[in-house]
Amino acid sequence: MNKIWLYIMLLSSLVIIYTNPSQALPTMIQASADCVKLCFELCAVYAIWLGLLEILEQSGLSARLAKLFSPFVKKLFKTNDEEAIKLISISLSANFLGLGNASTPYGIKAMERLDDKTGKINYPMIMLMVLSSCSIQFLPTTIMGLRASAGSASSADIVLPTLLSSIISTSCGVFLTYIIGKRRKKK
Amino acid sequence: MYSAFKKVPVYNAFVKGAKGAFPLVFDIFPYLVAIMLAVSIFRISGLSSLCIKIVSPIFACLGIPNEISELVLLRPFTGSGSIALLNDIFVKYGADSYISRCACCILGSSETVFYVATVYFSKTSVKKLSYALPIALIASLVSSIVSCLLCKVM
User: What are the angstrom distances between the C-alpha of B95 and each of A138, A140, A187, B81?
Assistant: First the structure.
């Protein structure tokens, strides 16, 4: 991450100084301002979902959900931490429904839980990252809405291709993670 | 409803959970600023259009039309940016064209990988992502290729 960030910033800065230096600072400030706005919006969304999580937690519903998913999650993530399994299950099920923003706070909590404080990434964390970055989508609600408002005659006809392609890409990601994870272990 | 049935103090629980939202956003804020700064400067400097010129022939070989290679490239970095781009595509080519359907599938089947990477790991002690990022990027490229292919067939 450090390297990528450095290269992007460095190269872009060089180019922008060469092409139009007057734009550099306003752009950066604009981006930062956008970010503050985004954070407030996120804060609103997260408050609702984290609140709901706590209710789920206390009613024992999340434990049930986790039980439902746990054989599957256990195998995929190779972890036995019940708390983590619970959070992963909730995060993934929110992802399936196209609620990307809802799954993020749960994902962050799961990552925190999986962290072993050694500063090194471990296998379940990678698996969670890969799974959440190419989530299987049953209903891409946002995009269907956008399409309908752009005057599409049949805004839902992208559901099936989207579902199929996300299943394929996710299994591809999981497969790669599995293979590489196994190799690393041997070393 | 289920909670009320189980006699859980629903209101208290909600408040307790929602309390965590501000610290959480507080923690991820610096990471978000960093990534958004990089993205915006990358776009405004014209480097991104250069990159698009370079990769679009490669993408064309993989079956991704030129018109949406910008979308494929931008997608891992910014969610709102790619949605704006999707709207442009709608206006330009019509919402029911092959290009638009492709674009929809690509957006639907992928995530903003870099955003996920920064935000998810913001609370952990992890310094290096090792092979997580490449795999996520490869998987999202695969989803783009498959989307284009499926839209052609279906």
Answer: 21, 16, 51, 18
In a domain, B58, yes or no: yes
A121: nearest CB among B79, B86, B126 = B126
On whether residue B3 sits in a domain, the answer given is: no
Which chain A residue is nearest to residue B45, measuring alpha carbons? A16
Please report, in tens digits, the pLDDT of each residue of chain B (154 residues total).
555 556 667 777 777 777 777 777 777 777 777 777 777 777 777 777 777 777 777 777 777 777 777 778 777 777 777 777 888 888 888 777 888 888 888 887 777 777 777 777 777 777 776 777 788 888 888 888 888 888 777 6
Could B126 and A158 be called an inter-chain contact, meaning their C-beta atoms sit closer than 8 Å? no
- Global pTM reads 0.74
Flag if B136 and A161 touch (Cβ within 8 Å): no
Q: Which residue of B has its CA nearest to A105?
A: B24
B38-52 b/e (C-beta count within 10 Å ≥ 16 → b) = bbbbbbbbebbeeeb
- Contact list in A for residue B54 (CB cut-off 8 A) is none
Q: Which residues of A touch B38 (CB under 8 A)?
A: 5, 8-9, 12
Interchain CB distance below 8 Å, B17 and A104: no
Distance CA B114, CA A50 (A): 23
Can you tell me the ipTM of this complex? 0.72
Pick from B131, B30, B56, B72: nearest CA to A5? B30
Q: Domain residue spans in chain A?
A: 62-186
Domain that includes residue B47, residue range: 8-153
B146 within a domain of the structure (yes/no): yes
| Contact between A135 and B95 using a beta-carbon 8 Å cutoff | no
